Amino acid sequence: MAEPAFHRYETREALAEALAAGVAAVLAGAIATEGEARLAVSGGSTPKLFFEKLSGAEIDWHEVTVTLVDERWVPEENARSNAAMLRRHLLTGRAAAAHFVPFYEPSDMPEEVLDTLNDRFHRIGRNFDAVILGMGNDGHTASWFPHAPGLAGCLDPNTDDAVAIVHPLDQDEARVTLTFPMIADARFLAIHIEGEEKLKTLEAARAAGAVEAMPVRAVFGAARPGPLDVFWAP
C-alpha cells in the first residue's frame, strides 16, 4: 500500500485556500490541454470553506463540468441534499458558469432510474481531472459505507457501472455514488479531513484490515499514476 502525500495545515482556512489553489491549477491545466475539465466533490459540512475559496478561482468555469461523488436520494428542496449545498457554496460567483451534473431524478428509489444515471455519468466522458473525497469516522468515503448492502458493487475494480446504489444500515435514505473506477482513475485524487478524530480514523484505515470494514481502504490501496493526497487541519 503506497504512502499518501500528507499535507498538514495549522488552520482550516489555510487548508481550504491551499486545496482550492491546487484544484484550480489542475482544472486550469486540463482546460489548457484538453479544452475542458472534470471535477467531482463531496458533500457534508467539511468542504464548505474549500468550496467558497474555489468558487472565486479565475479559471474558465464555462469549460468545467462539476458533479458530486455521492448523493442522498432526496430532491434539492430537501435540507439534506448535497446538490443544494453545492449550489450555495461552490456554484456561485465565477463558478456559477460551470456545468453541474446531478444524481437525483424524480423517483421513489434510485434502482428505478439506475440505467439513466449510468448513461448520464458515462457521458461525462474521460476520467475526472480532480476528485475530492471526505471520510467519515466509520471509515466510509463517498457512499461506500461499511458492510452496507450494495458495497460490493461500489468497490468492484472491474465494474462497467459509473454509479452504484447503497443502502446504509443505519440510515433511512438510499444513496447513489460513483464507483471505485470512476474515483480511483482521477488525475488528482485527494481526501480532505479535519480534526483529531478524523486523523485517528485515517491512521486506523491505513492499518491492515478488511476493506468492507473501512471502505476508504480501497482508495489507499488503489494503483494510481500519481499519489493519493491527504489534506488535514486540526
TrEMBL record:
CDD domains on file: 6PGL
Record Pfam families: Glucosamine_iso (PF01182)
Pathway membership, UniProt: Carbohydrate degradation; pentose phosphate pathway; D-ribulose 5-phosphate from D-glucose 6-phosphate (oxidative stage): step 2/3
Alphabetical keyword list: Hydrolase
E.C. number: 3.1.1.31
Molecular-function GO terms, alphabetical: 6-phosphogluconolactonase activity
InterPro entries from the UniProt entry: 6-phosphogluconolactonase_DevB (IPR005900), 6PGL (IPR039104), Glc/Gal-6P_isomerase (IPR006148), NagB/RpiA_transferase-like (IPR037171)
Keyword Repressor (UniProt): no
Glucosamine/galactosamine-6-phosphate isomerase domain location: 11-220
The reaction(s) this protein catalyses: 6-phospho-D-glucono-1,5-lactone + H2O = 6-phospho-D-gluconate + H(+)
GO biological process: carbohydrate metabolic process; pentose-phosphate shunt
Job description of the protein: Hydrolysis of 6-phosphogluconolactone to 6-phosphogluconate.
Family under the similarity heading: Belongs to the glucosamine/galactosamine-6-phosphate isomerase family. 6-phosphogluconolactonase subfamily.
Name listed for the protein in its UniProt record: 6-phosphogluconolactonase
Protein source organism: Jiella endophytica
Gene that specifies this protein: pgl
